[in-house]
Every structure is written in C-alpha cells, then in structure tokens.
Amino acid sequence: MVDEYDVIVLGGGPAGENAAAYAIAGSTRTAAIVERELVGGECSYWACIPSKALLRPGHVLAQARAMDGVTASGLDVAPVLRRRDAFVHDHDDTSQVGWAHDNRIEVIRGTGRLSGPRRVEVDGRELRARHAVILATGTTAVIPDIAGLRAALPWISRDATNLHEVPGRVVVVGGGVVACEAATWLSALGAEVTMLVRGTSLLGASEPFARDAVAAGLVEAGVRVLFETEPVRVDRAEVRDTGEGWIHGGPVTVAVRRGGSAPDDRASDADAAEIVADEILVAAGRRPATAGLGLDNVGLPEGYVAVDDQLTAVGVDGDWLYAVGDVNHRVALTHMGKYQGRVCGDVIAARAEGQPTTGSRYAASADHGQVPQVVFTEPEVASIGLTEAAARTAGYAVRTIEQEIGVAGTSLARNDFRGRAKLVIDTASRTILGATLVGPDMGEQLHAATIAVVGRVPLDTLWHAVPAFPAAAEFWLRLLEGLRLPEG
C-alpha cells in the first residue's frame, strides 16, 4: 500500500514546519512531516535556542557590572544549564508534535528518502505526494580532514550548545558565527578559550569595524584569538565516547601552524607549536544533510539543492519538488528558513488551487541582499542587507556613514556603552542598502533597519521617523544627521 498526502516534508525543523502549515492552511489538504530525530529540528534543540539560552546570562552579567550600585559576582553554571535545558524541553519534542497535530500535520518518525517523482520511502513505508515534496533536511557539521582529529572525538556545535560540564581549557577551531558565539559563552562560564582562525579576521562577511569589535570583545573577556593559525595534528591518548556535551576523554594536544601555510605544507608539522586543552570544538563549516536522501532518483546530484525564488528545485520537471532552509544553500539562518517555508507553502497552496503565483508574496526576494542577522557576541553585531564591499561589487554607487552611537538612551542603559553603526546608502535612489549596528543589545534595534532596507524607505522619509527620547533608537537621528554633512 502507498499512503497519500497532499504535501510531504522531509525534515521537521522550523523551515519544514512552516512550509507544511502554510501549504495546507485554510484547506482540506493533508500534510506529513518525516523526521528521524526531534520535531523542531536543529534550531530548537541544538542551535539557536540553546545557544541563546547560554549566551544571555553572560550578557546580563556584563550589563549588571556596567551599572553603578549593582553587585554582580559571576555566573552559577548549574542554574544556567538548567535554564538551557528548560528551553530545549530536555530534548522532549512532545509540544512540537502537539503543534503539528493541532495544525493537521501528521508526524512520521523515521528516515525518509526520495524513491521517485512525488514518492517518498520511510524505512520501507511508501508515501506519495499529490502536490509537493519539500526537502528541509538542513545541514550537518563538517570535521576537517586533519590528522588525528576525528579519532579524538572532538566537540561539534551540538556538544557545545548541550554541554553538561564546562571544560577547563577549550580550543575552538573556526572564526565564524558559531565559533565566536561558543567562545563567548564558554568563556563566560569559566573556560579558558583559545580560538584558531585560518584567516586574518573573525566573521569574514561582516564590515571590518564589526569584525574588529568582536575580536576585541573576546580578547577583553580573556579569549586567546590566534589569526592565520590552523591545526595540523590532534592527539588524544585517552578517548571516550561519553555522549553529547560531555568531555570526550583525556587532554587533547593540538599541533598548530601559524602564518597561513599553504595546504600542501600541512602534512609537515615539525615547526608546529602545541596547545594542550581539555576539549576541542570544531566550528569549521557545515555540509548539506542530503546523503542517502535519494536525490539521484529524481535526477539531482548529491549536495545542496538549487532552487528558484519560489523554492522550486531546479532541474526537476513538474513543479512538485521544493527545498527550504539550509539545504538549498541560499541563507543558513533559521528566520530565513522559516521565511522561505512561508513563501514555499503559499506557492504550493496557490498551485494546488490553480491560482497564479506572480505576486511578490510568492517569491523569496529577501534572500537577495535583504537578510537580517544578529551575532550574539559581546558586543552584538546586528546587520541587514549589503556591506559596503558587497554593494560596490554589485555595482552600486554608494555613500556610507559610520560613527559612534553613544546617545542618551544607550548611555543610560549602561555606563560603559560602546557602539558603532554604519549605513550603506544607494546614492541613486537615496535609500539604505545595508546597515551594521555593533554594541550591547543591538539585535533589538535591527528591525527598524530591516524595514528601511526591505521597504526601500527614502532618506527624506526616514527623517520624519522621530525616535523616542531617551531610547537607544536615538542613534538613528545621529546617523541621519551625519548624512547631511558633506561626504569626506
């Protein structure tokens, strides 16, 4: 027998959940989500939610220490971890399954794979989709091919977000968002952290001043940041598979080479220095979770699944296969995956009902130069749209304004407020192409910039968006005043 649904989603993370819900909303259509782990996915249990639960206590402590009359001694690790566990429901997805049930979405436990057009196999059970199959399987952590690294059973991001004990000394391999955030909370929890960064800066896609601010913040917190440094050999005499978030054995010795050696020189490590730690955390990128997904059964190669702006898979006839979230390699952010899921679901619903899909609602336009992101380090980096370099590369004629953003509202919030912001302006349309805000709690200020960028709000109109006083948003007025001055 073949079980039929209108929509079948492979992967139960936020992107897949949103796609399923939107595809059947207000109709009699049916949907099923196939999930081999926990409904709610990486974000709910191993990424965004637990990482922010771990980061917030450190931010609160820093703010308290920056306030006269407030006594703050430090973090108590056990309650911090209990609070994290409460947010991930102790890895119990009952509430998420209940949400699916309430939205008429059946949850099918198991490993799904494409077995042909509109067909899915789940551990021997055959399913058929009348309208759509949506791939929402996400990505998995990459372990680089470094001598001894895999054998040492290093931590990956899942271990770091679900840690049950804090290593005394940690080596973090990587300089991106995951590495910087993990270094932030590990240091706040008392670990001695060393970061090994291949390049010359952290957060390579960010504005230079933002990269520098995060590096300075980490160093100020006691993190040792080594640029142009990479591991060439890892040794761990005592290796134990103790489980996720527990230290995986005895001390780790990491041989590193500094100075940006060529890849073909890495095998020779006679000149490498050594760092000894209690654990090594690898945050060096991710790969698509498509192995064994059966892409070859529908004529697609292994790897990321390319899609158009309606999230329809490129290279598959019939407008039945879609991909949302990290697996399509457009934007690896949960909120953008959910956004894609909403667009995808609307497209599927319209096609199922024979309606046109020509309106802006049916295209994931924000994926192109309108992506908001917050890096929850100390200080935070909040950004939307294009950096100056990206805008110039794209051919825009731009003007920028970059300045400190200490105003009454920010100064009242904490004694040591240090913040900086930058706007990238399209001189032809006099609208904002991108904004980067750096400082405490700048993530809470980002949506105003997002609306300005996505709405292409002219600067002359923004002049009449009066910020309340004395709130942190007053810095918007200062930025606009800076744009009134002659350039240079």
From TrEMBL:
GO terms for biological process: 2-oxoglutarate metabolic process. Residues 5-341 form the FAD/NAD(P)-binding domain. Signal peptide: none annotated. Binds 1 FAD per subunit. It comes from the Bacteria. Residues 371-475 form the Pyridine nucleotide-disulphide oxidoreductase dimerisation domain. SUPFAM superfamilies: FAD/NAD(P)-binding domain, FAD/NAD-linked reductases, dimerisation (C-terminal) domain. FAD binds at K52, G112, D326. InterPro entries: Class-I_Pyr_Nuc-Dis_Oxidored (IPR050151), FAD/NAD-bd_sf (IPR036188), FAD/NAD-binding_dom (IPR023753), FAD/NAD-linked_Rdtase_dimer_sf (IPR016156), Pyr_nuc-diS_OxRdtase (IPR001100), Pyr_nucl-diS_OxRdtase_dimer (IPR004099). It comes from Nocardia panacis. The keyword Transferase does not apply. This is NAD(P)/FAD-dependent oxidoreductase. Keywords: FAD, Flavoprotein, NAD, Nucleotide-binding. Disulfide bonds join C43-C48. Belongs to the class-I pyridine nucleotide-disulfide oxidoreductase family. NAD(+) binds at G174, G175, G176, V177, V178, A179, C180, E181, G285. One of its GO terms (molecular function) is dihydrolipoyl dehydrogenase (NADH) activity. Its cofactor is FAD.
